[in-house]
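Supplementary Methods, section 5.1.

A reviewer requested that the exact input to the structure prediction be made available. We therefore reproduce it here, unchanged from the version used in the analyses.
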Amino acid sequence: MSRRFNDLLLRQGRLIERLAGQRAALRRDFKPVARALGRIDSAVIGLRSGADYLNHHALAASAVVGFFLIFKGRTTLRWARRTFLLWQSWRVAQNAIFNPGGRVRS
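The structure derived from this sequence is encoded token-by-token as follows.
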């Protein structure tokens, strides 16, 4: 009985080692997928927070839409570009001030 028990223990150890190797391979192989899913999650969170912002600031959103309806064409595009560049500059400044030397947050 003890020889059979020892054989079972040996088999169990080999299976555990094999499983550990398979887990390591899965972890290694799925890192790109996890990164891509993380980016998608970040985008979804950003869209949801933007929608929440628009819901809480409906007057400002309607003012922006009204601005675009009143001023058509190049003027609208010029101001949209300026606004976007100002917003990007603000984000860079926030990261530099509140996260010095750290990873850039998006």
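The mean pLDDT is 85. These observations are discussed further in the main text.
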